[in-house]
Amino acid sequence: MRQLVPVLGLLLLLATPIAGQTSFSANRPGQIDNPDITPPGNIMIETGFQYGKTNDIINYLLPAASVRFGISNRLELSLNAENIYQKVNSLFGLISDNIGSKFLICDERGALPKISFVNAFILPFGELKSFRPEHAGGVIELAASHSIGSRAVVYANTGATWSGNASYPVYNWVATIYFSPGNKLWIFGELYGLIPGKGSSSNSTDFGITWQAGRNLQLDLTCGFDLKYPSDNHFIQLGTAIQIEHKSK
Q1: Does position 84 have pLDDT exceeding 50, yes or no?
Q2: Per-chain mean pLDDT for the chain
Q3: Which pLDDT band holds residue 133 (cuts at 50, 70, 90)?
Q4: Confidence class of residue 94 from pLDDT cuts 50, 70 and 90?
Q5: Which residues lie closer than 8 Å to 95 by C-beta, 6 or more apart?
Q6: Less packed terminus of the chain by CB within 10 Å, N or C?
Q7: Which of 22-36, 117-131, 174-188 has the largest mean confidence?
Q8: Which DSSP string corresponds to the chain?
Q9: How is the chain split into domains, by residue range?
Q10: Half-sphere exposure of 147 (CA within 13 A, CB side)
């Protein structure tokens, strides 16, 4: 945490007034948290249904969901939850829930990317007993993006998660590129990894498409797998994002 302080201080010094916000920018699909802020007064509802295999156990997310609230041009709040179904263990219910926020540090300017600070508080209740953390946990992360011309955007995340079940964090990184062959269609690919404070690291990839079906509606499809054990760890996910716009009088 102490190592992040000078970095955040430098970024705040470089921060500039916001020239404007993207009217619709979902965090899904994929693993990336983008640095865009939901416009003030708007509500973004994102949900996805996933079939996956983790360590040889079939999992269904029914669904994973996030609700983001735009507070200002620089700040949004969020509620996030995942529900799981495991046929082999007869498990069904909530496996994770957290409340979070995203603060825009600086907009893209020349070589400087758009950067936001993301954090979340993992709630130690509500989940299925076998998934419930012993203590409260948290997430801190820096999210960045930079456009490449008018049809491509590169995203990057780096941060750490304290699960509430261990004294050490799990560090994460994500690198993603989005490309648009048309005005409403985007294709993407990404690499991401987890580096626990103890134990071995893991690296995975996923790829997919998004379609802007309307001004405030996005549909997406994603497939992914672990690079070392793809047959034992893989998933396919179908999802959507819907924005409810604030109508000013």
Answers
A1: yes
A2: 87
A3: confident
A4: confident
A5: 82, 83, 84, 127, 128, 131
A6: C
A7: 174-188
A8: -TTHHHHHHHHHHH--------S-----SSS---SPPPPTT-EEEEEEEEEEEETTEEEEEEEEEEEEEE-SSSEEEEEEEEEEEETTTTEEEEEEEEEEEEEEEE--BTTBPEEEEEEEEE-SSSS-TTT--SS-EEEEEEEEEEEETTTEEEEEEEEEEE-SS-SS-EEEEEEEEEE-SSSSEEEEEEEEEEEESSS--EEEEEEEEEEEEETTEEEEEEEEEESS-TTTSEEEEEEEEEEE-----
A9: 25-244
A10: 10
Q: Which residue has the tokens 């007869």?
A: 90
**Structure token digits, residue 110:** 């020349």
